[in-house]
Specification:
- With about 260 residues, the chain is an alpha/beta fold.
- It has a single domain, classed as TIM Barrel, CATH 3.20.20.70.
- The protein is about 35% helix and about 15% strand.
- Helix 1 packs parallel to helix 2 and helix 8 runs parallel beside helix 9.
- It is globular.
């Protein structure tokens, strides 16, 4: 089935090129976010990620800078001119985030938050919809339809792993889902091997496998010093890792036939 490409800023997802979205799990400081943005841009990333509002399993974990991080994001966006994507966790954040982000990200926990999906259907900003960690593919696609039926057709799906009986990795990354969505839906789909594996050592091979399966892009976590990250440092790529990933993506992309029909 033909993929309906979606633009975030001036970057097309679902076209002829594999797109990479990179940045830290959470925006922690101007120095951290700026340093990461400049490095990933230099080595091939075209969109920037970074959480401001974080949904965490433990209530005592870092929840993000929230509104206090807006000025940091705006400064870095001005410097890099990179489109920026960040997670929205509540319908009340739509208005305040609208002027900060170029695309809204719906996280795994909110795939079934139909009130939020309906609200995002009323916006004109692209929506990156992550698959729920227990979501069936059909449920994922129906969640996307909630946004589309509201009038916003700019939906990008993101496979980020599902919860299974296997415990060696944070989640079980579903390569099948990428191939299925490309074959039987018109939505662009990107891969999140950071959450899909939860292990820095596995991010690169799973990212490359995702591209081979037909993914239109990647979203990866990168941090200047993962050991000091306030969230998910164990799955964040170092700068050296990210450079290695992009070098390998450049090598395999030309030999993977980008067929969107």
């Amino acid at each position: 089935m033909k993929t309906n490409a979606v633009k975030i800023g001036n970057i097309e997802i679902g076209g002829d090129r594999v797109v990479t979205i990179a940045g830290p799990c959470s925006v922690e400081s101007l120095e951290q976010f700026q340093q990461t943005a400049l490095f990933t841009q230099e080595h091939g990333a075209t969109l920037l990620r970074g959480g401001l509002f974080k949904l965490r399993t433990r209530p005592d974990s870092f929840q993000g800078l929230g509104v206090a991080g807006f000025s940091i994001v705006e400064d870095v966006k001005t410097q890099t001119q990179m489109p920026y994507i960040s997670e929205i966790t509540d319908t009340r954040q739509v208005e305040e985030l609208n002027d900060v982000v170029d695309a809204f990200q719906v996280g795994s926990r909110n795939m079934h938050n139909y009130a939020l999906l309906k609200e995002l259907g009323q916006t004109d900003k692209p929506v990156l919809l992550k698959r729920g960690f227990s979501g069936l593919i059909d449920e994922w696609l129906h969640s996307a339809d909630y946004i589309v039926n509201g009038g916003n057709e700019n939906v990008i799906l993101c496979e980020r792993g599902i919860r299974t009986f296997e415990t060696k990795t944070r989640n079980t990354f579903d390569i099948n889902a990428i191939a299925y969505v490309k074959q039987f839906s018109s939505f662009p789909v990107i891969a999140d091997p950071s959450h899909g594996t939860g292990m820095r050592e596995l991010v690169i091979p799973v990212a490359l496998a995702s591209i081979a399966a037909g993914a239109d892009g990647l979203i990866v976590e990168v941090h200047p010093n993962p050991a000091e990250a306030k969230s998910d440092g164990y799955q964040a790529l170092t700068f050296e890792d990210f450079q290695q990933l992009m070098n390998q993506v450049k090598k395999i992309e030309p030999i993977i036939k980008r067929n969107h029909c």
